[in-house]
Write a structure and sequence with these properties.
Layout (H helix, E strand, L loop, with lengths): L3 E5 L3 H12 L3 E5 L3 H8 L4 E2 L3 H7 L2 E4 L4 H12 L7 E4 L5 H13 L3 E4 L2 E2 L2 H5 L4 E4 L3 H6 L1 H5 L4 E4 L5 H29 L4 H8 L7 H12 L9 H17 L5 H15 L10 H10 L5
Parallel strand pairs: 1-2, 1-4, 2-3, 4-5, 5-6, 8-9
Antiparallel strand pairs: 7-8
Length: 294
């Protein structure tokens, strides 16, 4: 396989993936609308393109990691109108299914192959190649990208029809939402019980009650430091709205997930939108401590 790949969107995830691929011998051609991000990744030996058309010209495989449906559609249109031969275009973002399908349609009409490949993992996990790729779409194209995936993620799988990657991601994020709030509640319980919070992290995390979210977020709660964010509350609120819509569409009640939503809403109201989702600890701390014991 030609070890040249394009990455459009050099933010927390795209930037970390680009660095890892460069370290593993890939020629990475990147583009971002943010000049600071372009400069930062140029210093990490990423070849910075002038625009999306430039990336499409030089890279047979392109990955997109973008913040909004509008940005994703704009990039799809730019790739489609580039006049280049067929490219494999891997969409990594978390979006509603309708947005992913629009992306696929735009590219398919121009002769390109779109893959729906959202990622399980945070920005911190991306730095450590601790990601899972939920790949879906054309099986032959996914097979061609297996080496690429293995150089920035620990696991990938072909989940079948385009869109199944997103469906799997919604299920995973449903659990993340619950485990994050459950971690905050458990840490407050431990605090009320007079336990050393650092020992709680050390002893509960590896045990039966632990989770990846507990292991990642409980230490942040102990320190009370939620920046730099591995997942901003404001971005997470967007993802949760997508999951809620998905669950409603398939007719599945999600009582635990639904109970967590007001906690994230309150975090936004408290001005914590730019902080890590571990900041829900501050929401529960305020709520629980202000509730008198009976």
């Amino acid at each position: 396989m030609d070890k040249t790949v394009g990455i459009i969107g050099l933010g927390i995830m795209g930037g970390a993936i680009a660095r890892n691929l460069v370290e593993r011998g890939w020629r990475v051609i990147g583009f971002d609308t943010d000049a600071a991000k372009r400069a930062e990744l140029a210093a990490a030996d990423v070849t910075i393109a002038d625009d999306v058309a430039h990336v499409t010209r030089d890279a047979p495989v392109i990955m997109t990691s973008l913040p909004t449906p509008a940005a994703v559609e704009k990039v799809a249109q730019a790739i489609a109108s580039s006049g280049q031969p067929p490219r494999i275009v891997i969409e990594l973002s978390t979006l509603a299914l309708a947005d992913k399908l629009r992306f696929e349609t735009i590219l398919k009409q121009a002769g390109h192959i779109a893959l729906d490949c959202p990622l399980s993992g945070t920005g911190a996990q991306a730095k450590m190649r601790d990601l899972v790729v939920y790949a879906s779409g054309d099986s032959a194209a996914i097979a061609r990208c297996k080496e690429l995936f293995s150089d920035f993620a620990k696991q990938s799988a072909d989940l079948g029809a385009f869109g199944n990657g997103s469906r799997m991601k919604f299920v995973a994020n449903h659990l993340v939402a619950i485990h994050n709030v459950a971690t905050a509640e458990a840490m407050i319980l431990a605090e009320r019980a007079g336990l050393d919070p650092k020992l709680v992290v050390d002893m509960v995390g590896p045990g039966a009650g632990g989770s990846r979210m507990f292991q990642m977020r409980a230490p942040m709660m102990v320190e009370g430091v939620y920046e730099p964010a591995t997942m901003k509350v404001s971005t997470w609120k967007k993802d949760m709205a997508i999951i809620a819509e998905f669950a409603e569409d398939v007719g599945c009640a999600t009582p635990l997930f639904t109970l967590t939503q007001p906690v994230y809403t309150q975090a936004m109201a408290m001005g914590l939108g730019d902080q890590d989702t571990a900041a829900v600890f501050e929401v529960l701390k305020k709520t629980i401590i202000s509730t008198p014991r009976s």
